[in-house]
Each structure stands twice: as C-alpha cells, then as structure tokens.
Amino acid sequence: MPLIRTVDNLIRTVDNLIRTVDNLIRTFDKLIRTTDKLIRTTDKLIQTTDKLIQTTDKLIQTTDKLIQTTDKLIQTTDKLIQTTDKLIQTTDKLIQTTDKLIQTTDKLIQTTDKLIQTTDKLIQTTDKLIQTTDKLIQTTDKLIQTTDKLIRTL
C-alpha cells in the first residue's frame, strides 16, 4: 500500500509539474507578444526620430536661407539710406520669418520633449519586462530544484 500511495503522489506531482510547465509556456507566449509590441514601439520611435531628423534638416535649410538673406541685407547697407521704406518692409518680413523660425523651433522642442517622454516610457517598460523575466527565471529555478528533490526522493 505505501508503494501505491507513493506512486499516486508521484502522479499528482507530475500532473502539477505539467500544469506548471503549461503555465510557463503561456507566460513565455505573453512575453513573446510583449516583446513583439516592444519591437513595434521601437520601430515607431525610429520613424519618429527619422521625422525629427527631416524636420531638423528643413530647419537647417531655412536657417541657411535666413543667413543668405541677412548677408544680402549687409551688402545693401549703402542702399539703406535711399530706400528706408523698402528696408522697413524687408525688416518686417525678417521679423515674420524669425517668428516662424521661433515657432518652428518651439515645435522642434515639443517634439524632442515628446521623444524624451516616449523614450522614458520605453525604458520603464523594458525595466518592468526585465523584472518580470527575472521573477520567471527565479520561479523556474525553484521548480527545477523542487523537481530535483522529488527525483532524489524517489
């Protein structure tokens, strides 16, 4: 009779082990899905960064144009005395362009802030994923130790 109880106990233990392994498989599947989501999010971050680079390039081009316009203004200083009205109009345009540049720069700052926030969230999510994976590894190690003890007992 003790042998039958031992075999019954072994069967229950093996059944429990199977359930635990099934749970582990489901957990791994969830981890895979979460990792896929992380990859998609990272791809979106890359796209956003590419857009930021394009916007920055456009800002550089606009700034170069502003520099060229300013150089022309310096070259025409002699004409300034004769064309005061024209200068006022050009200066107004420069102010408008500068305002647009300021607005564009503000948008760039906002975009950069959003990128920083998104990156921080990604870091936090990755940290959580690492913690969860560490816990899973610890639990799996405990399962292995328990199984080893069971095997040694048999």
TrEMBL record:
This is Uncharacterized protein. It comes from Trichonephila clavata (Joro spider).
